[in-house]
Amino acid sequence: SQPGATQSSAWPARPLVWGDVNFLFTTDTHGWLMGHTKSGPPEPNYSADFGDFLSFTTHMKSLAAEKGVDLLLIDSGDLHDGTGLTDGAPPGQPNAHESNKFIMRLPYDVLTPGNHELYQYASALDTYKSFVPHWSGKYISSNVHLTLPNTTNLIPFGSPYRKFLTTQGRRVTAFGVLFHFTMNARGTQVQSVEELVEQPWFAQAVEEEPDMFVVAGHMPVHMEEDPEVNVNDWPIVYYAIRQRHPETAIFIFGGHSHKRNCTVMDEHAIAIQGGRYMETVGWLSANLTEGGGYTRRYLDTNRNTYQYHTGTDEEDFDTLEGIELTQYITQLADVWNLHEVFGYAPQDWYLDRVEFPHKNSVLTLFLNDVLPTVLRLGAPERSNIPLLAIFNRGSIRYDIYQGPFTRNDQYTVMPFKNQFFYVTVPWAVGRRVVDEANKKREDQARLRDAMRMAMPSLPQPSEVPFPLPGAQTVLGGPKEPKEDEPLTLGYVTQDLCEGYADDTPHLSIGGLDRADDFHSSPPLPISDDTLMDVVFPSFVAQPIVDALNRLFPGQNYTVAGLEKYMKWGSEDVFEVYAREKWN
Ligand SMILES: Nc1ccn([C@@H]2O[C@H](COP(=O)(O)O)[C@@H](O)[C@H]2O)c(=O)n1
Hints:
Distance between the termini: 28 Å
Strand order of the largest sheet: 6-7-9-10-12-11
GO molecular function: hydrolase activity
Oligomer: single chain
Structural class: alpha/beta
Number of strands: 23
Number of domains: 2
Bound molecules: ligand L45E5XJ5
CATH class of the largest domain: Alpha Beta
Shape: globular
CATH architecture of the largest domain: 4-Layer Sandwich
Radius of gyration: 24 Å
Pfam family, one: NadN_nucleosid_C
Domain Putative 5'-nucleotidase C-terminal: 348-544
Domain Calcineurin-like phosphoesterase: 22-259
Helix content: 25-40%
GO cellular component, one term: cytosol
Number of helices: 14
């Protein structure tokens, strides 16, 4: 792992149960290739870096070969937007250009893009040119297309599908599916999942019966409260395959909601996903012969986990390639100055453990102090005008831990490069913008829910042989810790499949389901007709402009007509604040 990373003191509770077909899977890694290096709990549980992960997958592939079984490695997208390694490149270089080279060192069998691969045309194009070719057909994007500069023809972003033989000779048909993402950059196209399954080429690809279908997709395998994330179109893909092949095995690997979860779809189909930020490596094993059945496990990403499951120790775990990858990651972090300290955070602030406006919520810190401080510093000429700052919760991505706050931390909290726009309106209008923008979101969510209800519901699985014979130890709740083995803080997963699936037992860190809605700084004690500045990030300019136009008819606000509030963008905000307040 990376120099200075605090190692985990926790260990897995029991060995993995292998089937004849096995999968390791990642999703929503968002650039956390350095692993989690802080000492505050639960960070040490996720302290392995991508070099460790490479050593782990190498040992696991060898174990599979020794056992004469298959092991496939899958990723379900969102490789960048989340750390300095992916987003801290010098100006002009597309996100993830360097970090993608690290990912290319891993032996993935199937990869698929997430929505973050498509927000910016420059990074989508760079992925297409520099990353996709390396995979020789393994990077699959069944419903994503792109146009090359100065052309109009849509071409597949990755391969539309992949048919291949596993090392044990099993025939696989694989697809890669992204939810119907609509905020993609001009020059990229995402087909809806309904449209995808109607394509003649899709019907043709599905027609021939393989031993198993493997579908990696950037959509959650469960329903979510948040309409931004509640984009579970898996039943559409599932039915499109099931109609033709009633009993063929289907393995679905989801993502996007940043949670561990699992759903049994029928006796021969299961959908599963790991969490986010390289905190989880998922494990799924199945017997396609000998009466079927599955086991699953959510592995914490630390060296204890990796060594325990590969029967190695500090002496023989690291492979040369793994050590080399760790060193390359360290070098890039050094070259890009990611460990530069901007200030010292006086306490922890959490994203998901406490609710806004709790004093330990990173959202509270951001709205009540960070944003007002930085906006005032950034536009001193407007400091006599009252200010209402608005932001979208989804732009804040992670906790802040007490101690040195570095350039990399700035990217883990707020990786996006959004400008700040403003309009000057009477307080009577300004104070209603956030509610109005959120109301529209809720209306859209209701519409989407209504469409979803029109879809056939999933059949109830009957008598699903879950888990695999020999996996009974997985059932019955968390293993009781020994008295001298205190539990550490971490994830305690309750997914929708049978039994207990966390690999290492923990005391629950908690976690809240939140909508990616709009929030604003505290109300101002001013009269309704006082003019004020409403400031918001460019990413949400359209919904805020729409809300303003509904509240203030006749003004005709447009995104193109908006002015920048200050020179700093969202990626600068925490640096400016930490230098000012924590230094
Ligand atoms: N330029 C951007 C891009 C995205 N966001 C926020 O990220 C959310 C999507 O992230 P997921 O991991 O859930 O896919 C999006 O809804 C925005 O809130 C942003 O702020 N700026």
